[in-house]
UniProtKB/TrEMBL annotation:
<protein>
    <submittedName>
        <fullName>Uncharacterized protein</fullName>
    </submittedName>
</protein>
<dbReference type="InterPro" id="IPR008586">
    <property type="entry name" value="DUF868_pln"/>
</dbReference>
<dbReference type="Pfam" id="PF05910">
    <property type="entry name" value="DUF868"/>
</dbReference>
Length: 146
């Protein structure tokens, strides 16, 4: 199937707020693919996702270099209870609060999803050795009857 997740992020002190969409195609007749869009533009496309389920790539947004890290192993190989992790790391101004999320950045699916489908909580931001990092992690819920 297809999974869509969206959030908003600001890269750099003077950068504007951007819409970020992560789209993962895991089913159907085509090979799984991952797309990351910033303001409706595809900035990352990962083909051969069965082999490249973990990786990173540098993109440029508002003149700032942003490194995107992804791990979608469990989406592909444990789809029932699988999680995925996405991280956006700026490599520009080390003193700024880059990759800062906005107050209305709660990630919501682009389309209504049943409770059993992965849901994406708001990102958390923290600082490691001068680099601000934003982590996006999916979570899932399941229920069983006894």
């Amino acid at each position: 199937g297809k999974r869509y997740y969206t959030t908003k992020a600001q890269f750099g002190e003077s950068g504007r707020t951007h819409d970020i969409v992560i789209e993962c195609h895991t089913g159907g007749s085509k090979e799984p693919r991952l797309y990351v869009r910033v303001d409706k533009q595809v900035v990352l496309q990962v083909k051969h996702l069965m082999w490249k389920f973990r990786g990173n790539q540098t993109i440029e947004v508002d003149g700032a270099s942003i490194q995107i890290f992804w791990d979608v192993h469990n989406w592909l190989f444990n789809p029932t209870h699988g999680h995925a992790v996405f991280m956006f790391q700026t490599s520009g101004d080390r003193t700024s609060n880059s990759a800062r999320r906005t107050d209305n950045a709660a990630a919501v699916p682009c389309q209504p999803l049943p409770p059993s489908v992965l849901q994406w909580p708001p990102p958390s931001v923290f600082n490691i050795r001068g680099h601000d990092k934003t982590f996006f992690k999916t979570s899932s819920s399941s229920s069983s009857s006894s």
